[in-house]
């Protein structure tokens, strides 16, 4: 195998010498130049496996070099060398196509990790095992042939090539974590850990310890050293789900960790370098939260270097049959029963439904239908879809738009007023509303049949097995 080569572009002789010595000890051949003109000549005459470029150069800037390499040498990873704390330049470099960035003074251990990751990516691209070839295989878990989903899969393949922070936007239930996993699995960090964390599930007082770890005796209850999530994700990817739920004091600490690529455990005297790629997601409008002062603007710009929007199910209705077939196959494998199939009226009902809960809601609907149906053929009645309220834009004089706070079923065309049962609480969502209706019907049937479950199932028009499933799911004794 031929010796791998690296191009270093920096007008400071000390930096060129440091990188030449460090990379030479990694058995790499180094060409070092000090201007954009010399860099253009070197790139035209030679082939390189990796490039480092300074931001400020005598006859131009590193941004020009990055754009040139992105256009003429798309398979070559390029890293930006920036002044300490100049993260804005690093963010711009990442947006332009840089693989990663290194801050001055250069941390040798961090530099070596970056080089190993970059060269691994370059090797995968040459051998055809990189992000492009993995997109079809890994993306097979992202079900759907619609144009928007094809675009999402293509974007995932591109994002997997670099280390830029990615913000994944989308409604609840669209599959944001799956998208994050695919970005990780199709990139050079695939062999490293993928650490997902729900930022809304960690108590505020425990967040710093959970993210950065702590030393024994640093606070009451710290009986031993503890590794944080950043350390656990070292060499891999940290996925911050529901990042909008982070309190402001934690946003400051997270910002520093991302900028400095280092964390300080509670009770520790020194920071620990970490090599982590940050992916984040939320169903909320993060830009609106920034405007209202509920999310730090500087952190928003750091995690939102590249944004990937995952479309809701109602924008890709043609994917519903494929998704349904995939989910029914999974349910059959999980429960050990026959694979269910959608009858024509059920398919039509699903394709016309808006799915406010997206793919997660579709999974719940099909699981419930499998428990309720009498055979392997699922009908529209088995789906138990809530009646859809007209959207505000669809409102007419005879069907006025629903008022805020009223349950959807209360406004369904032709629905009797008595059918409207209030949700379980003021914050009750669609799932809570449906569960409340089911609970009331089941409890009433049980009372009328003196808690004879067989008789209650007959009253409800469902099988005894379906009733048992409902009792367990709803927690009814």
Explain what this protein looks like in three dimensions.
By secondary structure, this protein is an alpha/beta fold. The protein folds into 4 domains: 5-127, Rossmann fold, CATH 3.40.50; 131-311, Rossmann fold (3-Layer(aba) Sandwich); 313-388, Helicase, Ruva Protein, domain 3 (Orthogonal Bundle); 431-477, Orthogonal Bundle (Arc Repressor Mutant, subunit A). The chain contains 20 helices and 16 strands. It has helices at residues 13-24, 36-45, 62-72, 87-96, 108-127, 131-138, 147-159, 176-185, 207-212, 229-232, 248-260, 286-291, 297-303, 320-335, 344-351, 358-372, 380-383, 430-448, 453-460, 464-474, and strands at residues 5-9, 29-33, 50-54, 56-57, 60-61, 78-82, 100-103, 166-169, 194-198, 237-241, 262-263, 272-273, 277-282, 306-309, 341-342, 377-378. Strands 2-1-3-6-7 form a 5-stranded parallel sheet, with helices on both faces. A 5-stranded parallel sheet has the order 9-10-13-8-14. It has a two-stranded antiparallel ribbon with strand order 4-5. Strand 4 and strand 5 form a beta hairpin. The chain starts with a strand and ends with a helix. Residues 130-139 and 389-427 have low confidence and may be disordered.
